[in-house]
Input
Amino acid sequence: MSAFQMMRTTRLQSLQLAAALLCALSAGQVLAQAAAPAAATPAPAAGSGFLPPASANAKVVDSIQVVVNDEVITRNEVAGRLVQVTANMKARNAQIPDTATMERQVLEAMIVERAQLQLAKEMGVKVDDRTLDATIGRIAENQKLSVQDMRNQMEKEGMPFSQFREDIRNEIMMQRLREHEVDSKVQVSEAEIDTYMAAAKAAAADRIEVDIAQILVRVPENASPEQIAARAARAEEVMRQLRTGADFARMASTYSDAPDALKGGEIGWRDADRLPPNFSAELRKIEPGQVTPILKTNVGFHILKLAGKRSLASETDKAIVEQTRARHILIKVTPTMTEGEVKRKLLEIKEKMANNAGTFEELARLHSQDGSASKGGDLGWLYPGDTVPEFETAMNALKPGETSDIVQSPFGFHLIQVVERKSEDVTQQKERNVARQVLRDRKMQEAMEDWMRQVRDRAYVEFREEQ
Output
């Protein structure tokens, strides 16, 4: 593999992970993860960045509340999570269900979380301290604090920093597990993209974005006809109460089995085209404030409330990208060649070019320690982001025909020459990428819910009566 091939960046995945974790720590997100209930990450208290645990000085005799496979969840753990969630809902002025319902929802979220963590460990998913430290650093930076300041604030408010670290480690583990078990298995074919784009073009004037909430009555995997009938009856009872004026948010908090239940079922704004087709079709038939009929999926029975609707722009902006054709000579520091010797060698090469003692291509073939050497250092046409930042910044500062001074990158020291530049209209490619992501989002939503249900249903769960 050439050094250039190694340069191609993979920063997007780490940024997406950081964004997911930062969202998990922001207000209103304790149980709002789209893929799964959040780990035991501290929810912010009103007026401060973190929430202290309940009554740190109280002496409570702990006991087992539920067994999940070969691990236990204690009553103190559940009580601590209840304090977090309750404070979070109060901070958002959300309607809080009765104590029994709240405990049931929180406990179910903890069971699913524990089952996912156990599966992650069984599959050998690990998070090293370096990755963990980097993630915590990004979290602190997002809150405009140093890691030490964040640690001091948390411990002052009663949250041990060691617990916080393990919560974040668990969240990363679950994220990696979901990527392996769900994300990597969702595929979108070129034929599906073609079909979607043709339909989208015909319906461009009808594109809308919808603000929705949901109530989900989940059906267990491999459910018997009797179980399905019982869950259908529960959904019908929810619908009956909604038709007689019951508040949707309170009904969601009480009856919904979805991770967003304690947010009143609130999902937020979504492109209607990114929702399952039967959801989108029914939402287009109703007005804000109304609810859909009961919708059946392989996960269970859904009732959606349309809170708002707005049009989306139908035209795609032109996407013009400047490409650069470049070549380079790379020499690496080795045990037998110091940094100073590498720089002197490159200066000699550049002087030869200036004295017409050799062309860039000839000297690259002779001296470059890169897979492109046989091609005279030619890297071909490069898009923005194709190379590491140090290389790209130096390359972008050159005019066609110019050769750079010595440039250092993680791969060694370079001389860079720009051959030519051109602008390319990648609008069609951009449209296909958008279509691919829309179709992937549709499949991901259903696949994630189905996978979560399977993990929960396959876990051995035993509830213990309070002694």
